[in-house]
């Protein structure tokens, strides 16, 4: 079995976010980047499948050379080889198209993506990849078992979960639950050293025209000042809720 895990190179949640060039571009200065959390669950599940089914695991990222440390971390976690498509991830369609072109050549049985990236939260790439490849697709997947070509998956739906059966080949949009948080793999020294010798292939992008354009980024509005009201002044509280907060 051949498994492809698509990973995003995203800012750590503790990073301070700023924008440049008239608020049209993300400022990467001083920002620490990590594997997208949803992708880390996907990668760990792929490693578990590798151990139980003898699968090979390839990690893929669409990005420039700055994302290679993130790919190397994925290799240290246990992936067999890495692929970097040398293209700026301008929008979801472009990313999905680049991924699908590589996938068509390698004919992967299972493609696991995080259901959405931490930075843009678009949640579109996995579904687009499935459509471009004409693969089965399961989104918001939090459980995955494979026996031969038969797949049993659990996905999150409003108010509960749904169990689905299908056959390979398959694309899933994974999330927390694919593995327990305690099972996420922290690279050890042996894994880090081994990762240095694993193949990381750089692939030039195919032609793809972006379908969207970023006009401007805006930060959330600053929170208003907190007003303290005396516990015995109920009338002032009601007045503020009615006239300023306008919630009653």
Low-confidence stretches are none
> End-to-end span in angstroms?
59 Å
Q: What about the largest sheet? A: 9 strands, mixed
Any idea what the shape is?
globular
Q: How many H/I helical runs?
A: 6
Strand content: 25-35%
Class computed from helices, strands and strand pairing = alpha/beta
* Helical residues, percent: 25-40%
- Spatial sequence of strands, sheet with the most strands: 11-10-9-12-8-1-6-7-13
**Compute the gyration radius: what is it?**
22 Å
Q: Please provide the count of β strands.
A: 13
Mean pLDDT: 92
- Would you list the SSEs in sequence order as H and E? EEEEEHEHEHEHEEEEHEH
Question: How does the SSE layout of this entry go?
Answer:
Blueprint lengths: L1 E5 L2 E3 L7 E2 L4 E2 L6 E3 L1 H17 L2 E7 L5 H10 L3 E5 L6 H15 L3 E5 L10 H9 L2 E12 L2 E8 L2 E8 L2 E5 L14 H7 L4 E4 L30 H10 L5
Parallel strand pairs: 1-6, 1-8, 6-7, 7-13, 8-12, 9-12
Antiparallel strand pairs: 2-5, 3-4, 9-10, 10-11
How would you describe this structure to a colleague?
- Strand 9 and strand 10 form a beta hairpin.
- This protein starts with a strand and ends in a 5-residue tail after the last helix.
- With 248 residues, it is α/β, with parallel strands linked by helices.
- The protein contains 6 helices and 13 strands.
- Helix 2 packs across helix 5 and helix 3 crosses helix 4.
- A 9-stranded mixed sheet has the order 11-10-9-12-8-1-6-7-13, sandwiched between helices. Strands 2-5 form a two-stranded antiparallel ribbon.
- It is globular and about 70 Å long.
Supply database-style keywords.
alpha/beta, two-stranded antiparallel sheet, 248 residues, 6 helices, nine-stranded mixed sheet, 13 strands
């Amino acid at each position: 079995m051949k498994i492809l895990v698509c990973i995003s190179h995203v800012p750590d949640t503790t990073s301070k976010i700023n924008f440049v060039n008239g608020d049209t571009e993300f400022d990467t200065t001083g920002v620490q980047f990590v594997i997208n959390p949803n992708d880390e669950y996907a990668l760990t599940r792929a490693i578990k499948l590798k151990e139980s089914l003898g699968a090979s695991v390839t990690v893929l990222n669409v990005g420039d050379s700055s994302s290679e440390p993130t790919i190397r971390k994925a290799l240290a976690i246990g992936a067999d080889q890495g692929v970097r498509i040398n293209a700026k991830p301008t929008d979801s369609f472009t990313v999905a198209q680049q991924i699908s072109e590589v996938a068509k050549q390698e004919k992967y049985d299972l493609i696991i993506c995080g259901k959405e990236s931490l930075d843009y939260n678009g949640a579109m790439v996995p579904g687009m990849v499935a459509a471009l490849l004409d693969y089965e697709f399961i989104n918001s997947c939090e459980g995955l078992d494979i026996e031969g070509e038969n797949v049993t998956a659990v996905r999150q739906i409003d108010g509960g979960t749904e169990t689905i059966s299908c056959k390979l080949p398959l694309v899933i949009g994974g999330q927390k639950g694919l593995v327990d948080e305690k099972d996420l793999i922290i690279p050890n020294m042996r894994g880090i050293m081994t990762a240095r010798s694993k193949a990381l292939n750089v692939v030039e992008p195919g032609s793809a025209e972006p379908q969207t354009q970023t006009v401007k980024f805006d930060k959330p509005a600053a929170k208003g000042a907190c007003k303290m009201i005396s516990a015995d002044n109920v009338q002032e509280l009601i007045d503020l809720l009615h006239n300023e907060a306008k919630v009653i």
